[in-house]
Amino acid sequence: MSVRLNNKHLKARGVLAAAAGAAALGLLCDPADAQVDSFRFYFSSAVGSVGTAAIGGFHYDAANNVFYTAPFQNGFRRVSFSAGWTGTNYVDATDQAFWIRNPDQNIRNTNTAGWSGNSTIGDMAINPATVTIGGITYGPGEVAFIIDQNSVTEQPGAIPRPEYSKLGYFYDLRKSGDPAGGGRDRDGNGTADWNDIFNVTFTLADYRASLGLTGGSVNIARSPRWNTAGDAIYFSDNSSSFGGLWKVDPTQTGTNAISRVLPIAGGTITEPGVLSIATRALDPSGPVSGDQVLVQGASGGIDFFTDSTFGTSVATLLTAEQLLHFRESPGVNIMSIAPDSTNGNIYFTLTTPGGFFVYDAAGNLAKMASGAEQARFDRANGAGSLNLLPLDTKLRDSSYPTGGTGAPFAVRELLFTDASLRSVAGVYLFKPGDFNRDNVVDAADLALFKTKVGLRGANIGSNSADLRFDLNGSTGSGTNTVIAIDWKDVKVFQRYYTLSDADVDMDGSVNTTDLDLLSSNYYSVSGTNGKKWTDGNIASTLWTAPDKDLVNRADLATFVSSWPGAKPDLTSYTGEFGIDIRRAFRDGTTGTLTKWSARGGGDWSDAANWASGVPNGADHVAG
Hints:
The chain is α+β, with helices and mostly antiparallel strands.
C-alpha cells in the first residue's frame, strides 16, 4: 500500500493538464489587444512539454537564453532559441522513472521491474553561488535543487519503501547519455547516466524522522528558494503533519540536511520568497544582515521569518485584513512570493481568481496583472479550460518592445508556470499607472485614466478592453467576473502620481471648476444618484455603502481638506449645497479658513459663540 498524498491545491500541478487543447498551437496574442500586452508568450506546450503533460517547474538561464522545463513524469527538457524556440529532451521519462523507483543511486541498476513510484515535481531552483554537493563543486547556475512530491516508492508486492522515496534532490543540468565530462560518473563508464546526473538530499523517511514521525503525508509540490548566500534552501509544506517553512542545507544529506524552521498550523500553500535584509529591511529594528523568508502564515497575509547570525524571528508584514481591504475581495490566498533583489519590491500571486501584485519598497500595494487579464491572454494563445494559479515565479531583466510606438525600454519581468497553456509565460512589471506603456506615469496616463473611472463597484466585465486601468485587481464577488474601475483605483493611482483629492475633473489642478462640479452633482439636486469621481464623488470609501454613488457632505469634507491656499469665494452657491460648503469651509467673511481658538478675542474666540452659532448672519456659519 502507499501513503496517500495530500492533493490540496495541487490542481495547478498536473490535475488540469487537460487544459492543453489548442495551446499546443502556440498562437500569439494580438499585440493591439489592450490587455494582453502586460503578458509575454514564449513557446507552446509542444515545445516545452511532452504530450499532454503539465509543467511542474522550470529554470531560465538568462546568460544563454535557455529554459529548462520539467513536464510531469516526463523528465526534463532544454528549450533554446535560434530562429525560434526548440525543445530537446535532456532526461526522458524512462530515466526519470529509474531514478524515482530505484533503491540505490550509486549503481546503474535498470532492473526496477515491479517497483513503482511517480514524480510530481514542485519546481527547480538554481544555485546562486558556488556549492559543493556530494564531493562535486558547482559554480553559480550549474545545479538545480528539485522538490518532488512523488508517490511513495514501492518494491514488488506493493511494499512501501519511504527510505527510497526521494523528496529533495539535485539535478546537474547534464543531458542523460552525454559524455560525463568532469561531472559525477558513479560507474566510471564515461557517460552521464541517470544515476550520475541526480544526487539525493533527503527522502520521505528522512523527512518523517526529522520530526520524530513514522508516517504522514506531504504536500510540497511548490517552488523552493535559495537564500542570498547560496548556502540554504527554503520550501513550504501544506500538510497537517509537516506544515510550515522548511530549510535545507545543500551540503548535507538525510536528516542532517533538513529542519522545519517555522511550523504553521494547517500548513501553507505559499511558495516562499527570500529577501536580503541589506536590500530591504522589513523590520528596521531587527538584524542588519541575513535574509527574510516570506510566506503566508496561519492567519493569512504575509509573514516573514528572519534568518540571521543574530538569531531567528517571525513577524507580520501584511495582515489578511490589509490585503482584503486592498482587493475588496471576500478572501485572499497567496500562492507565490518573489521579492526583487534589485529594488526590494515584493511581488506575489494569488489563488483563484488569480492575479499578480506588488508590495513595493515604498509600502504601496498595486496590481501588476489580474486573473481576468491572464484569462484573456491564455485564451488568445489557445487555452481551452483555464487554470489561473500562477506558480514558480522567477524574476528576470527584460525589455518591452512598445509595439513600434516608441523606443524599447528596460523592465523587470516575472516568469511563471502558466497551467492553462502548460508552458512558461511572463508578466511585464510596468510602473503602476503607466497605461500608455512609455515607462513614465504622467499627465498622458491621467488623461487616459479619467475617462475609464466609473461608478463605485460597477462591473466592467472580465473581457473589457479596459482591464489595465483596474489597479487593485478588484473582484467584488470573489470571482474574476466582477471587476470595477472606480474610486479605489484612483486611490492606488495617487500613490504613483500626484493627484489631489480635490481634483474632481482630474486635470492636474484644483480650482473652482472642481467646486462647481460638486455643486452641480450634489445629492440635494434632483436626479443626482449615479455619480463617480469626476462628478465629485471623491469619498466613496466602501463600495457596499448605500450612498456610494452620491455626492454628499463626506465628499465636501474631503474636498475642503485638500483645497490649496485661501478659501474660495462661496457667495454664488445657494441652497443645501451653499449651506453645506460654507459649513465645510467654516466660512467667515475674511476670505480665509476660520477656527475657534481658546485664546485671543473676536466673534469666534470662545466656546459659547461656536456652540450657539453666533455670529450667524449671511455667509457666517459657526458649524
